[in-house]
Every structure is written in structure tokens, then in C-alpha cells.
Amino acid sequence: DQQTVIMTECTSLQFVSPFAFEAMQKVDVVCLASLSDPELRLLLPCLVRMALCAPADQSQSWAQDKKLILRLLSGVEAVNSIVALLSVDFHALEQDASKEQQLRHKLGGGSGESILVSQLQHGLTLEFEHSDSPRRLRLVLSELLAIMNKVIFFKSSELFESPVYLEEAADVLCILQAELPSLLPIVDVAEALLHVRNGAWFLCLLVANVPDSFNEVCRGLIKNGERQDEESLGGRRRTDALRFLCKMNPSQALKVRGMVVEECHLPGLGVALTLDHTKNEACEDGVSDLVCFVSGLLLGTNAKVRTWFGTFIRNGQQRKRETSSSVLWQMRRQLLLELMGILPTVRSTRIVEEADVDMEPNVSVYSGLKEEHVVKASALLRLYCALMGIAGLKPTEEEAEQLLQLMTSRPPATPAGVRFVSLSFCMLLAFSTLVSTPEQEQLMVVWLSWMIKEEAYFESTSGVSASFGEMLLLVAMYFHSNQLSAIIDLVCSTLGMKIVIKPSSLSRMKTIFTQEIFTEQVVTAHAVRVPVTSNLSANITGFLPIHCIYQLLRSRSFTKHKVSIKDWIYRQLCETSTPLHPQLLPLIDVYINSILTPASKSNPEATNQPVTEQEILNIFQGVIGGDNIRLNQRFSITAQLLVLYYILSYEEALLANTKTLAAMQRKPKSYSSSLMDQIPIKFLIRQAQGLQQELGGLHSALLRLLATNYPHLCIVDDWICEEEITGTDALLRRMLLTNNAKNHSPKQLQEAFSAVPVNHTQVMQIIEHLTLLSASELIPYAEVLTSNMSQLLNSGVPRRILQTVNKLWMVLNTVMPRRLWVMTVNALQPSIKFVRQQKYTQNDLMIDPLIVLRCDQRVHRCPPLMDITLHMLNGYLLASKAYLSAHLKETEQDRPSQNNTIGLVGQTDAPEVTREELKNALLAAQDSAAVQILLEICLPTEEEKANGVNPDSLLRNVQSVITTSAPNKGMEEGEDNLLCNLREVQCLICCLLHQMYIADPNIAKLVHFQGYPCELLPLTVAGIPSMHICLDFIPELIAQPELEKQIFAIQLLSHLCIQYALPKSLSVARLAVNVMGTLLTVLTQAKRYDIMSLLIQIGQVCASDVATQTRDIDPIITRLQQIKEKPSGWSQICKDSSYKNGSRDTGSMDPDVQLCHCIERTVIEIINMSVSGI
């Protein structure tokens, strides 16, 4: 066998020992002196050159060492021949060698004439014996150059094979390489030596005499090597040579192995070096270097390395005959020995009878795996999985038997033991072919039964939450639901590698699991008894009880077998912490589905029970009270947020499935509104906002549910306000927070409010301190603040107190909006003597949001409190929409489908009206009523009118202050009017109306079709930016048959045209002019004056368009543009005293003529003002 010949050709030769090589590396003269003569003989070329050549080191210590070297060499006879070799003219030798290389190149590498060596009388060996030193150098150099030029890998060379002259030839070789490094690079020489017999020995001597070239030579040999070294003679010779080099310098062996992996060449060398290292560094208990190395290659992240080594394993198995000289065979044998070394010593494959187990429960023929061997056993299992699954290793019968023995051994109850059992179980699933006989199958069943029995003990003793019991349950559930791909994913995930597992290979295991070990009923009954994971979070990895429960809920096993799972889920939700475990939200979703949807149509009652209201309230016990929130909380914020998610998702799912449930004649119970009122939803959402990174997708899921079911808690203004409260300003306020501010109690605040009629200072001081508190710290003061709001309506209360109370209310609104709104509405009710005030509830206010506006009339003229009232109104209008939509869905199942439409009474042929349309009509009426009430509030009261306040004059005063140079007195009056409470309330109302119109433009249309006092038109058009949308429906409003609506439309249009001087306004204005032309012909004289002001407004519209460059066919615009281009002609008209002074004799004219003159005069004034402005 060629492999055997290669391994034995150098066995009789003396190699350089690791001790000698290290001494050469360090130039340790003392160690060199201790070498034996045969060892020293191998190092003479380097030592002689060291002693004779001029050194670079001129130190005294080296001088002493050099003397020792000379003394060491003085007794060696072979030194003289080496000295003679060094006295040759190497320059001439190099020139001749170069000429010979050129000649060989011309002859194509043939063996013709030689310049270095001529006239060989005898064989090469005899010539070498009879030659002097110069000729010996030429003989070796010529032979070496011939080998380097040969194409054939192995060459028989008499000079390098003769055992008598090996040492002399090695001396010559070392001297040649040292003196002619450019002609003979050491890497090229090393490559050439692989082609001859004894090449490994020559190579080791060469490197030993140039010890600093070790890494260079090794890297060169590896880089030029084959990808698969055991496939060819050359690869095997190269591997053996490198092994000899590494035996000479064992400290660099692992570095050479790293080069092998880096280049992906010579895999056999990497394994061989590892085997050598394992034998030298024998470690019984720890994981061996061989296991670590091969596992790293197959399980590492480098796919190129994995493929390279996998090919080595496959090719090695394809060779017909594996002998002990094969590196793969050696590796497998070593791994098997390591596996057998950790197997329990007392082991019997005899199946234990049940009677024996009952009699002696503490004694088992299955001896346990030693604790110190568990980690090594796990590493070996993963390695064999990688070898079989990734590299395609086919185990022998002996390997399969020993693997099964190891997999079914019983480790101690430690975390490593839990890991070992999980790996063993997954390996059985992945490689079911390891179990081939009935005895082995029975052994596996007994071991699986032991796993089930010992699972609880292992979990309690090892302290590991994710034990193998959950994995058993999960696999059993997957088998029952035939989710084989899920089992394969689970196995690959546990083993930590992607291997190909055919689903068909799991058929026998499926039968064992579903029929012998884990029937579905056993699975569900066992799952409920599994303890919940304490402090469940994303930090706890592995397969947990929650995975099993989730899978069982999905397959509806609990409802099929009437096993209650509600308590387990509730306990697990309570035992959660951050960061949120990713399986919790899917668990809640599938649990809700199992509550609402029966497992089968034939059994509609087969559903799980929902969490009770009392259990939910227990979760929020510390938050509901308000005082000392952090101290009273028994449950984590994670548990509270998860339960909130459960309630909101449950209610949403209940509404979404109303029709389905009605068809099945089922009506699951909804959670009461009183429960929802007690849960601090906004406070919890705010807490979740600060924990978004740790809560995963829970925060966004809660926001989605809120936006759908509680839109009044998602008002944009509130979010903006929260940003201000939780930003940098909040941190600065906390820095200013003094002990005095912390010491104020709600009782002290109540006493201060009681003294408001006589003393404002105390209240002012306390509430200013309260502004420094956070929102949650303010909760205890909420009731006192709201209950005393009515006192703030009395005259004489400073504006600063009102504004501070408004500020505190807005802060509280970020954490407890719903409860705060109810308290505020009840506090601001009008106080009527002898009439008991009604206490409204949250439900009352959602059904009728207009209750908010039935407050004390003084609120309408108190801007800070009116701001609060409008905020509540907006919220309850949104809440009412959600409430009615939910009510519609809830009651849908109470009505037969044919009654979902209602016919008008007394009209048999009238179109039917759906309940959805009725709901929309109710909401529209509700919104429009709110708008109408707010518009009425904008009108001045009789008392304000008596004091000279006019809403129309408010807007005109703005124009007069800005555009005219009125006397100081008039300016002061305008400023007084603008700074009044009415004006501020009007601004607040206009802001709300703007938001309502933008949210639903149909409200604006409905309100204007209903109409409102025309005195408010200057205010609404100027104060509500979205009023421009009215231009879209004014033509429709003008087309109404009622004259009052037509006049209101034209009045509205006149103000819009002034506010929005747009081409669209002009086109609608033309329509109005045409309509008015028609009206003038049909109206009576008394009604004509009603539209005179409208014509004036239209004139203003026309004038506003003069500033545009648009040419138009409209005669009015054309005339105005001509006036603009010829202002001198227009000034002539302006100077006409008859126009200016109105001195025409109008007394004798017809009333119609008077009207026309009045209109003409007004239009001229408007045009004059516009043109002069241009």
C-alpha cells in the first residue's frame, strides 16, 4: 500500500527532536550542548555557519556563546567536511546554475548535457563519494534543479535515497540553500523535496537549520496543496511531511491547522494534527480538541469551510477499503473511543419490568451519566448530528449502538443535564434510523417514559425554566396535529443546525407518541398541571410551557376534552416582566378566539371561559386607588398592559364576530362598562410609551385598539400636550421641585379653596406648587380640583388661578381623562336652589354628549373653564360615535335579519331605512346641535349688548384699527372689545368648529343648511379657517326654495368672497348676481332692501379681483380693469359732487330708482377704495 510505504520510509531515520528545534530557535547554547551526538549531527550546517560567519551581534554575551559553540564543534569529525563546503566560490556556482537552468528550459526539461556536472564516470552515488566538496555541491545542486523542473510528482533519486550518504547530502543541501537563497528559495526547495523518497526527513533537517522559516515553509506547502489530500499520492506525501514538521515544532501545530482551514486545503492534515494534539493533551473530563475542531468546521458560519470538510467526509466514505492509515478512519475511531469512555460503566439493555421498578424505585439498572461527563456528552451528540446531517456520515453498527446507549442514558438534574436530554431527544427524532431493532425501540420508549416522569423533578432541581418537558409536550401536540414541518424546525432549532429531515422518517415516532406515550387527552391534562414560568420575559429562551399551551389552544384540545385553561393563562399573565416574551400576544389572541369560537359547529358550547371581572380588577388594584401608585402595585406593568390588551382585543373580537355568534345562537358575555371605567387606560398607555423598546409590538397594538374603540383617548391635542409634559420642561420642573410642594395634601388644597372668597393667595401658592408635580403624582388632587371649579366662576377670582387650574386639569387629562371628565361635568352643573343636582355617569355622557354644554352659564364667559368644557365636548362626541357603533353591533343579533330595515309609518311604499343610516342621522343631528349651541354662545347676551358689545363690530374694529387712522379713543375701544372674555371664548369655539369641519365636512354643510344668525357670519368666516369648503355647496343652498335660505346663502357668500378672493369665489359670485337679478324682478318693494347689502358685498368681490391679471368676458370685471388702466378717467368720476355728496334730488324719484342710485353710489365707493389701494 502506497500510504504505508510513505509512512514507513522515514521511520528508521533520526529526526530532529522538539527539544533540539526549540534550542535552535532560541540559540540556547546550554541546551545544544546537552544534545546527543546523533541529534547534534543533524544541526551541524547551521552551527558551523554560525561559528564561522561574521555575526551581526557584536555583544559580549554572544562572543561567549560563540566560544561555547566552537568548543562544542571541536570534537565532531563531520565539521571539517562542512567547513570545506563553505570555502567554495558560491558566486561562480550560482552563475553556472543559472546557465544550466536556461539550458534545461531550452531543452524542455530534458536530462541532456549539464553545465554543473559533466563527464559522470560512475553512478551518482559513487561520484558523490569520490568527489571533493565543490563537486559535491555541484552534484546535489544539479540533481535538485532537475527535481524542481520535473513534472511527474514522484521521482526516484539515487543520491537522496542512499542511506549511507543521507547526512552528507543533507549537509550539502542545507549549505546550498543558505548560501544561494535567491537561486533556491526555501519554499521551492521544500516543494521539490516532496518528490523524492526520504523527502520529509530532508525537509525537517532543512527547516531545523533555518528555524525561522518554519511558518513560511508550512504556509507555502499548504497553499500549493490539494483541496482533498487523501485523494492522491502527492496529497498524502504533503500531509505526512507537514505532520513531521509539526512533530518537530509542536507549539506551532495548531497555527498550521489554522492555515489549513484558512486556505481550505489538506483537510486530512487538519484532522491529523488535531489527533496528534489530542493524544499529547489528553483530557478525560473536558471536551476534547478533536470534538471542538470538527464541530467548529461543520457548525461554524463559514459555508465554504463547511462544504470543504463535508466533501472530505463523503469522499473518505466512498473509498472501498478504509485502513487504519486513513485519517478519517482514525478520526472516527478516536471519536468512538471518547464516546465509549463517558458511557455509564454499569449498563444493561435488559428491559426493566414494571414489577421490578415498583419494588425498588431507587435502584435502576440504568446507571446515570456522571455529572462531569454531561457537557462532553452533549458536545459529542451535536458533533455526530453535524457529521450525519451535514457531512453525510453513515454510522457503522458499532457507532449507532454506542450512540443510542449514550442518548438514552440518564444525566443528573442540572442545567447541563436538561440540555443533554433535549439534544438526545431531538437527535432521536432527526436520526430515527439509529433505532433499528425492537429491543432498541423498547429502550427508547422506556427512556421517553422516564423523561415524562422526571420532568418536574429536573425543573425544580436544576433551576432551569425551559426544561425538556415542554419540548415533549410540544412535539406531542405537533404529532397530533400532523405538523411535521414544525417538528423539523423545532429539532433544527434545538440542535443549532440546519439538517435535512424527511417527514416520512418521523412516521414511527409519530405512532409511538400519539398511541403509546402521549394521547391527546394526556397531553391536555398534563399541560394544565405544568407550572407557569416565573417572571416570564424574552430573556428566558428555549421551549417553555407557554409554547405548549399556545399550540394546544390553536388545536382546540382544551375545549375538546373539557379542560379549563383560563386559570393557567391568568397566572402566566400575572407572572410576566420586561422585555416582553414574543409568545404572549399570540397566546392572548388564540385564547380569545377559543372563548368566542366553538371547537365545532356540532358542539357550540365547547369554548374556554373568559377571565372574570374580579380577576381583572385584582390586577389593577394598585393603580385604581391613585395614592402611592408605585407602592401599592402587586403586579408588574407588563401584566397590567397584557390584561388591558386582552380586554380590548376581547371586546373588539366580540363585536367583529357578532353575526357569526348570532347564527350559532351564542352570546358571550361582554365586560361591563363599570369595569372599563375603573381601568386607568390612558395612564397605562403612557407607561407603555416609555417602555416601547422592551414591550415589542404591545404598545402599537394597544394604540390600534384604542383608536378603534376609544377614539376620545386618542385626540391629537392630548398627544401634543403629553409631549410638552414629558419633555425637557418636565425635567426642569422636577429640578425646581421643593419640599413645600411635596408636602401639600389634598385636604390643605380643599381648605384653601374654601377660603377663596376672602383669600386668593393660599390657593395660588398651592396650585403653583402642584404644577411642579408629575401627572401621576397629581392624581390624588383631582377630586378636590374639580369639585371646587364652580367656586372659580364667582366674580373677583384672579385670572392666574383660572389659568393654573386649566393647566393642572390638562396634565391630569393625560393620565385619567375619563374619570376626570365625569367629575368635571358634575362639578360644573348649574346650581339651582331647592333642586338636587343629578350625578351623571360615563355612560350617560357617551349617550348624550350635549350634557357637557348644560353647564353653569357663567362657564360660557370664563375662557379657561370653557377651554376645558370644549375639550370634554370633543371627547364625548368621539366617544358617542364609538359607543353607538358598538351598540349597533351588539344589538344586531337581537333583531331578525328581516327587521334590520324600518319603513316609514303610514307609507307602505316608502324606501326602507337601515339601522346604520339611522345611527348616522342621529350622530349628524347630535354634532349639528352641538355646533348650533356653540354658535349661540358666541352671541352677546342682553347684558353685553347693553354694555355696547356687538359681535359684528368686533370684526370691524379689527379692520378699523389696522386700516384706518382713527382717533386714539376709537383704537382703545377696539382693543377693549378684542380683549374681552366673549372674544376669547369665540376664538376657542372657532378652533373646535374648525376641527369638526375638517374631520367631517358634512357637518359644515348640515349646519349651514340649517342656518344660524347672520350676525355671526363675520365671526365664523374670519375665525374658522375651513369655512372655504362652503363654496362647494353654496350653489346648492341658493337653489333651495325657501327665500330665507337663499338670502342666508348670499350673505354667507359675500363674506366668503371678501375672505377668499379666489377665481372659484368669483364664479360662485356671478351665480349669486344672476340669482339676485331674478329676485329683484319678483320681490316686493319691502323685501328688496334686504338684499341691498348683498349687492354691495358682490361689488367688493368684483373689486378684489381687479388685482388679478386675468382677462374676463364679465362686463363688470372688464370695466374695472379699464378703470385700473386709466385711473385719470376714474378720478373725474370721483370728483363729481353729485356722486360724492349724494346731492341728487332723490325725493321725487321712484323707490326703485332710489335703490339703484344707492347701489351705484356704494359700488363706486368700493371701487374707488380698491383702485386707490392698488
Automatic annotation (TrEMBL):
Biological process annotations from GO: snRNA 3'-end processing
Keywords: Nucleus
A Pfam family recorded for this sequence: INTS2
PANTHER family xref list: INTEGRATOR COMPLEX SUBUNIT 2
Organism: Pan paniscus (Pygmy chimpanzee)
Family: Belongs to the Integrator subunit 2 family.
GO cellular component: integrator complex
InterPro entries: Int2_metazoa, INTS2
Protein name: Integrator complex subunit 2
This protein's record includes keyword Nucleus: yes
Nucleus keyword on record: yes
Subcellular location: Nucleus
Gene: INTS2
